[in-house]
Amino acid sequence: MSVDAEAPAPAGAPDSRIGNVAAYVAMAGGLLSVGLALMVVTSVTLRSRWVGGAGVPGDFELAQMLTAVSVFCFLPFCQARKGHVIVDAASQKWSPLWRARVDAVWEIVAGLALGLMAWQLGQGALGMVQSGTRSMVLGLPLAPAVWTCTALCGFLAGLALWRGLTGLLSSASAR
């Protein structure tokens, strides 16, 4: 996947710099996913009866942390491309202007909810740092993964708010 600055942006796409950041973050999430898949294959192979069933200690802990970070890496790209599911059964007969306004309001609501989620993730990470929470088998600190998810969720919230506010402003000027 390449990020082409000359390619036309989809309708409602954010500024190309923000979209590019979201694309690069998604690529990092893809690399994490590939690494996770390789780790799982290695662990399954080592657990098989041909090798003696030893496995990789704590592989599930790494899988949990990497999956969480990877998912949060993909969400801003999805938001930037309007890739989230939108139920528009009730609004199909509305004018495009009203649909754009309602979509913008819901983007703002989503941004506020995601901002609250980022805040709570940050509070959880802070609590993990203060209590020294570590994984059970490997003894890895959990806070860095949660801090990473906090930052990515904050980026996602900002992106949703930006899209909603710019959508409202553009629909207001389209009168």
Domain tally: 1
Identify the overall geometry.
elongated
Rg over C-alpha atoms, rounded to the nearest angstrom: 20 Å
What's the β-strand tally? 0
Largest sheet: none
User: In terms of structural class, how would the helical and strand content be classed?
Assistant: mainly alpha
Kindly report the average pLDDT value: 85
Helical region count?
Answer: 4
Binned strand content: under 5%
Which sequence of SSEs, written as H and E, runs from N to C? HHHH
Regions with little confidence, pLDDT below 50 for 5+ residues: 1-12
Helix proportion range: 55-70%
Distance between the termini: 38 Å
Q: How would you describe this structure to a colleague?
A:
This protein is mostly helical and 175 residues long. The protein has one domain. Helices cover 69% and strands 0% of the residues. It contains four helices and no strands. The longest helix has 36 residues. The chain is elongated, with a radius of gyration of 20 Å. It starts with 15 loop residues before the first helix and ends with a helix.
